[in-house]
Amino acid sequence: MENADGGKDGRFVITPPLFAMQGKKENTLRIIDATNNQLPQDRESLFWVNVKAIPSMDKSKLSDNTLQLAIISRIKLYYRPTKLALPPDQAAEKLTFNRDGSSLTLNNPTPYYLTVTELNAGTRVLENALVPPMGKTSVKLPPDAGSNITYRTINDYGALTPQMKGVPALTRGRPPTGLPRTLH
Protein backbone atom coordinates (compact mmCIF):
# COMPACT_ATOMS: atom_id res chain seq x y z
CA MET A 1 0.00 0.00 0.00
CA GLU A 2 1.10 3.54 -0.75
CA ASN A 3 -0.37 6.87 0.32
CA ALA A 4 -1.45 9.61 -2.12
CA ASP A 5 2.15 10.87 -2.36
CA GLY A 6 3.48 7.42 -3.31
CA GLY A 7 5.14 6.66 0.05
CA LYS A 8 4.77 3.30 1.78
CA ASP A 9 1.79 3.26 4.14
CA GLY A 10 0.94 0.68 6.79
CA ARG A 11 -2.53 1.94 7.68
CA PHE A 12 -4.14 -0.98 5.88
CA VAL A 13 -3.30 -4.68 5.94
CA ILE A 14 -4.01 -6.87 2.92
CA THR A 15 -4.61 -10.58 3.44
CA PRO A 16 -3.43 -12.90 2.13
CA PRO A 17 -0.22 -11.02 1.29
CA LEU A 18 0.93 -13.83 -1.03
CA PHE A 19 -0.96 -16.68 -2.68
CA ALA A 20 -0.72 -19.12 -5.59
CA MET A 21 -3.49 -18.89 -8.14
CA GLN A 22 -4.32 -21.36 -10.88
CA GLY A 23 -5.35 -20.27 -14.37
CA LYS A 24 -8.94 -19.10 -14.88
CA LYS A 25 -9.48 -18.85 -11.12
CA GLU A 26 -10.03 -15.90 -8.83
CA ASN A 27 -9.12 -14.98 -5.29
CA THR A 28 -10.38 -12.38 -2.84
CA LEU A 29 -8.10 -9.95 -1.04
CA ARG A 30 -9.28 -8.55 2.30
CA ILE A 31 -8.26 -4.98 3.07
CA ILE A 32 -8.29 -4.31 6.81
CA ASP A 33 -8.22 -0.82 8.33
CA ALA A 34 -5.40 -0.95 10.89
CA THR A 35 -5.92 2.67 11.99
CA ASN A 36 -8.98 2.09 14.20
CA ASN A 37 -10.80 4.72 12.15
CA GLN A 38 -8.12 7.40 12.61
CA LEU A 39 -8.34 8.66 9.02
CA PRO A 40 -9.86 12.12 8.35
CA GLN A 41 -13.64 12.04 8.72
CA ASP A 42 -14.31 15.28 6.79
CA ARG A 43 -12.89 14.15 3.42
CA GLU A 44 -11.82 11.18 1.34
CA SER A 45 -8.34 9.68 1.70
CA LEU A 46 -6.47 8.16 -1.24
CA PHE A 47 -4.22 5.11 -1.19
CA TRP A 48 -2.70 2.95 -3.91
CA VAL A 49 -2.88 -0.85 -3.82
CA ASN A 50 -0.06 -2.51 -5.78
CA VAL A 51 -0.83 -6.09 -6.81
CA LYS A 52 2.00 -8.05 -8.42
CA ALA A 53 1.27 -11.11 -10.58
CA ILE A 54 4.24 -13.40 -11.16
CA PRO A 55 3.61 -16.26 -13.60
CA SER A 56 4.59 -19.76 -12.55
CA MET A 57 7.39 -21.50 -14.41
CA ASP A 58 6.65 -24.76 -16.21
CA LYS A 59 9.58 -27.01 -15.30
CA SER A 60 9.29 -28.95 -18.59
CA LYS A 61 10.00 -25.77 -20.56
CA LEU A 62 13.07 -24.57 -18.63
CA SER A 63 15.34 -25.15 -21.64
CA ASP A 64 13.01 -23.35 -24.11
CA ASN A 65 13.44 -19.71 -25.01
CA THR A 66 10.53 -18.04 -23.25
CA LEU A 67 9.63 -14.59 -22.09
CA GLN A 68 7.73 -14.22 -18.85
CA LEU A 69 6.38 -10.95 -17.56
CA ALA A 70 5.55 -9.99 -14.00
CA ILE A 71 2.71 -7.48 -14.01
CA ILE A 72 2.03 -4.92 -11.30
CA SER A 73 -1.48 -3.48 -11.20
CA ARG A 74 -1.76 -0.17 -9.37
CA ILE A 75 -5.30 0.37 -8.10
CA LYS A 76 -6.73 3.49 -6.46
CA LEU A 77 -8.30 2.85 -3.07
CA TYR A 78 -10.48 5.63 -1.69
CA TYR A 79 -11.45 5.67 1.96
CA ARG A 80 -14.73 7.58 2.17
CA PRO A 81 -16.18 8.53 5.58
CA THR A 82 -19.86 7.71 5.89
CA LYS A 83 -21.18 11.14 6.85
CA LEU A 84 -19.93 13.56 4.19
CA ALA A 85 -22.38 16.43 3.66
CA LEU A 86 -22.36 16.62 -0.15
CA PRO A 87 -23.52 13.66 -2.28
CA PRO A 88 -20.61 12.42 -4.45
CA ASP A 89 -22.52 12.88 -7.72
CA GLN A 90 -22.69 16.65 -7.09
CA ALA A 91 -18.95 17.14 -6.52
CA ALA A 92 -17.90 17.56 -10.18
CA GLU A 93 -20.11 20.59 -10.72
CA LYS A 94 -18.51 22.42 -7.77
CA LEU A 95 -15.09 22.57 -9.46
CA THR A 96 -13.86 26.11 -10.24
CA PHE A 97 -10.92 27.40 -12.28
CA ASN A 98 -8.33 30.19 -12.03
CA ARG A 99 -6.26 31.17 -15.03
CA ASP A 100 -2.87 32.66 -14.28
CA GLY A 101 -0.60 33.20 -17.27
CA SER A 102 0.66 29.78 -18.35
CA SER A 103 -1.30 27.69 -15.85
CA LEU A 104 -4.87 26.80 -15.05
CA THR A 105 -5.64 26.01 -11.41
CA LEU A 106 -8.47 23.62 -10.62
CA ASN A 107 -10.05 24.34 -7.21
CA ASN A 108 -12.00 21.58 -5.50
CA PRO A 109 -14.09 22.79 -2.52
CA THR A 110 -15.66 19.35 -1.97
CA PRO A 111 -14.65 16.49 0.36
CA TYR A 112 -14.10 14.16 -2.64
CA TYR A 113 -11.15 13.45 -4.92
CA LEU A 114 -12.02 14.50 -8.48
CA THR A 115 -10.43 12.80 -11.48
CA VAL A 116 -10.71 15.38 -14.26
CA THR A 117 -10.41 14.21 -17.85
CA GLU A 118 -11.10 15.66 -21.29
CA LEU A 119 -10.07 19.05 -19.91
CA ASN A 120 -10.09 21.67 -22.68
CA ALA A 121 -9.35 25.38 -22.91
CA GLY A 122 -11.05 26.40 -26.14
CA THR A 123 -9.82 23.88 -28.72
CA ARG A 124 -6.65 22.98 -26.79
CA VAL A 125 -6.63 19.67 -24.91
CA LEU A 126 -5.04 19.95 -21.45
CA GLU A 127 -3.58 17.21 -19.28
CA ASN A 128 -5.82 15.15 -17.01
CA ALA A 129 -5.72 15.97 -13.31
CA LEU A 130 -6.47 14.43 -9.93
CA VAL A 131 -7.71 17.20 -7.64
CA PRO A 132 -7.58 16.45 -3.89
CA PRO A 133 -10.51 17.23 -1.58
CA MET A 134 -10.59 20.84 -0.43
CA GLY A 135 -7.46 21.39 -2.48
CA LYS A 136 -6.21 22.48 -5.87
CA THR A 137 -4.07 21.29 -8.76
CA SER A 138 -2.51 23.26 -11.61
CA VAL A 139 -2.06 22.20 -15.23
CA LYS A 140 0.01 23.83 -17.96
CA LEU A 141 -1.89 26.18 -20.22
CA PRO A 142 -0.62 26.80 -23.77
CA PRO A 143 -0.35 30.49 -24.77
CA ASP A 144 -3.00 30.05 -27.48
CA ALA A 145 -5.51 28.31 -25.20
CA GLY A 146 -9.04 29.56 -25.51
CA SER A 147 -11.07 31.00 -22.67
CA ASN A 148 -13.93 28.48 -22.60
CA ILE A 149 -13.14 25.63 -20.20
CA THR A 150 -14.87 22.26 -20.61
CA TYR A 151 -14.22 19.05 -18.71
CA ARG A 152 -15.52 15.66 -17.65
CA THR A 153 -14.84 13.66 -14.52
CA ILE A 154 -14.80 9.96 -13.70
CA ASN A 155 -17.58 8.98 -11.31
CA ASP A 156 -17.74 6.26 -8.63
CA TYR A 157 -18.58 3.63 -11.25
CA GLY A 158 -15.65 4.44 -13.55
CA ALA A 159 -17.91 6.13 -16.11
CA LEU A 160 -17.43 9.61 -17.53
CA THR A 161 -19.79 12.34 -16.38
CA PRO A 162 -21.44 14.52 -19.03
CA GLN A 163 -19.29 17.37 -20.33
CA MET A 164 -19.42 20.44 -18.08
CA LYS A 165 -18.45 24.06 -18.57
CA GLY A 166 -15.79 25.48 -16.27
CA VAL A 167 -16.87 28.01 -13.71
CA PRO A 168 -14.21 30.61 -12.92
CA ALA A 169 -13.48 31.30 -9.28
CA LEU A 170 -14.61 34.82 -8.48
CA THR A 171 -12.06 37.47 -7.65
CA ARG A 172 -13.67 40.41 -5.84
CA GLY A 173 -17.01 39.60 -7.45
CA ARG A 174 -15.60 39.38 -10.99
CA PRO A 175 -14.29 36.46 -13.00
CA PRO A 176 -10.52 36.29 -13.41
CA THR A 177 -9.06 37.81 -16.55
CA GLY A 178 -9.39 35.62 -19.62
CA LEU A 179 -12.27 33.47 -18.39
CA PRO A 180 -15.90 34.31 -19.03
CA ARG A 181 -18.38 33.73 -16.27
CA THR A 182 -20.36 30.66 -17.25
CA LEU A 183 -23.01 28.46 -15.71
CA HIS A 184 -23.23 24.66 -15.71
TrEMBL record:
One Gene Ontology biological process: cell wall organization
GO cellular component: outer membrane-bounded periplasmic space
Pili assembly chaperone N-terminal domain sequence ranges: 8-84
Gene3D superfamilies on file: Immunoglobulins
Record carries keyword Glycosyltransferase: no
Compartments it resides in: Periplasm
Keyword Chaperone: yes
Main location: periplasm
InterPro entries per record: Ig-like_fold (IPR013783), PapD-like_sf (IPR008962), Periplasmic_pilus_chap (IPR050643), Pili_assmbl_chap_C_dom_sf (IPR036316), Pili_assmbl_chaperone_bac (IPR001829), Pili_assmbl_chaperone_C (IPR016148), Pili_assmbl_chaperone_CS (IPR018046), Pili_assmbl_chaperone_N (IPR016147)
Keywords for this protein: Chaperone, Fimbrium biogenesis, Periplasm, Signal
Annotated ranges, domain Pili assembly chaperone C-terminal: 106-161
PROSITE patterns, per database record: PILI_CHAPERONE
Family note: Belongs to the periplasmic pilus chaperone family.
Protein's UniProt name: Fimbrial chaperone protein FimC
